[in-house]
Amino acid sequence: MQKILGKISQWLADENVIEQKDKGLYEYALKSVLITICPIVAALVIGSLMGMIKEAVLLIIPFMIIRRFSGGYHTKNIWTCLILSCGLIAGFTYLSQYIDNKWIISFITAAASIELMVLGPVDSVNYRLTYDEKQYFKKILIVLIFLADVAALAVFSSGFFRYSVCVMLGIILTSALHLLRVLQQFFAKTELMNGESR
């Protein structure tokens, strides 16, 4: 993906659409746009194939927004990411139609929300957050989780339990991938400490 984005930004520079010195900035902007568009396109395609477009979109929106500030597990290459992402979207969308116990799903969502607020944000492999960035992201994260929980509750109160489940599953999925990254960091740190103590 980086090579393709590099070629696009180089082509824009060669065509004098952008200045050569701004290439890196445009590569970053293109990457941000792709990262935003790809999950929505995947959710729309998967949702339409399953006949569950609304459910897939309601699942992916809280996931994308919260994950932007919480961080979480990332695969090492783009194809693994694409396959895993599509599988998770399809799996969680499919699962949404079979969840009928409002207390269990509400409890799991509350636990996921608390996990994200307490342990978030987490560094990604490619980008380490400074202390100030972590504090800033945590504040935004708490507000976003609160808003997602309120949105799920509002949809539920309006009598659309199935759709509220999709929003809740978006929060749960974010938490699951976030917790996976937290555990990954914990085990890496433990391994490093054990190596130093030998």
Automatic annotation (TrEMBL):
Regions crossing the membrane: 33-66, 78-97, 103-124, 136-156, 162-183
Source organism, top-level taxon: Bacteria
UniProt keyword annotation of rRNA-binding present: no
Keyword Transmembrane belongs to the record: yes
Alphabetized UniProt keyword annotations: Cell membrane, Hydrolase, Membrane, Protease, Quorum sensing, Transmembrane, Transmembrane helix
Name the UniProt record assigns to this protein: Accessory gene regulator B family protein
Protein's organism: Lachnospira intestinalis
